[in-house]
Amino acid sequence: MTRSGADTSGSKADKRVQRSKAVVLAQTYELLSEAGIGGVSIDEVSRRSGVSKTTIYRHWPSRAALLLEACSTIGVTPQVPDTGSFAGDLSVLAAQFADELRSARWAAVLPSIIDAAERDPELAQLHAVLHARLMSPFAVVTERARGRGEVAPGREAADVAASIAGPLFYRRWFSREHIDEPFVRRVVEDSAGAAHGLAVDGQ
Amino acid sequence: MTRSGADTSGSKADKRVQRSKAVVLAQTYELLSEAGIGGVSIDEVSRRSGVSKTTIYRHWPSRAALLLEACSTIGVTPQVPDTGSFAGDLSVLAAQFADELRSARWAAVLPSIIDAAERDPELAQLHAVLHARLMSPFAVVTERARGRGEVAPGREAADVAASIAGPLFYRRWFSREHIDEPFVRRVVEDSAGAAHGLAVDGQ
């Protein structure tokens, strides 16, 4: 929010700062998609964005901080469905994931972050933040379904997330097969069926 | 097999070649584990192994060829179980995977190859070879189980592989949670149950 009169030049300066921050973030993400995390250096981001290294370091104290914000502003923000049934909610979430995995840029970027996280604790932290955000809808829909008696006590939200995201991620990054509709449907049926089976047997 | 007399010096030379090849492969794998695929250069492998670049290029025409052999000689060779039941076989396979994911070095190396495969067709080829070998037991145990009527026609070996490897891989590289025994058991029960459920409903 801007105040009046004397602040006009300050507000212009603010806008300029915002614009150059946006350019830096966009170029960081661009570079990440093209070359993987190893290709992202402050030098190269500065060169491409035309923003000086000093200015970049003023906004982001480290490369990891820059990467984190670049991923958080352009990356995914998953919707939490509320269809009234567990299978329905999982179906929406799985379709959303499948769609993103087939087309979104983060799908080509995430392996690079995962690889870096194996060796670099700061990037492991970045990965943990991205992962928690990506997976957060599973906790919501699982607890709601548990309230309706559709999920057994032994089945945690983390199990549900693994049973949906696991096969989809596997197919995207490991087997590199096409993620087609029938496959997505089978994954959802298996996951909802297993949770329900437990609910029936286990209570 | 060596012949006699005149071949002794040839055989000694052969042994020296074998030894230097082994050193190069070991150093390549070492470097891969430490620094990821971006850290593996013929220069650095030569420096560490003490084997000249010319000699390295004589044995392996490209960096990808060297990486492929380094991974294939030291990497995994999964056992194919034959317990007499589908659930039993999957249980052995899942336990084997879980064990490797917790401790084997390839578990720290694979994300690097997957990341590189997103951008480099030659390394995508390397990944495809490694992946096919890693997953080959699933085709064998699934087809055997199908012969015993434990697997419905609609359930492919690729689905079974995704339903076991997916959640385990997810947990190792994405959520970075501990892969404990109860989790592995639930994954196997879900997978065998889903295949069996289909066999009962669908035939």
Short précis:
By secondary structure, the first copy, chain A, is mainly α. The first copy, chain A, has helices at residues 8-35, 42-49, 53-59, 63-74, 86-103, 106-117, 121-147, 157-174, 181-202.
Write the layout of secondary structure elements.
The structure is a homodimer of 203-residue chains.
Chain A: H1 8-35, H2 42-49, H3 53-59, H4 63-74, H5 86-103, H6 106-117, H7 121-147, H8 157-174, H9 181-202
Which features characterize this protein?
homodimer; 203 residues; mainly alpha; Arc Repressor Mutant, subunit A; Tetracycline Repressor, domain 2; 9 helices; disordered N terminus
State the low-pLDDT regions of chain A, or none. Answer: 1-6
| Level-2 CATH architecture of the largest domain in chain A | Orthogonal Bundle
What fold name goes in the CATH topology slot of the largest domain in chain A?
Tetracycline Repressor, domain 2
What is the tally of beta strands of chain A?
0
CATH superfamily of the largest domain in chain A: Tetracycline Repressor, domain 2
Mean pLDDT of chain A: 86
Which chains share the greatest interface?
Answer: A-B, 46 and 46 residues
Radius of gyration of chain A: 21 Å
* Multimeric state: homodimer
Shape of chain A: elongated
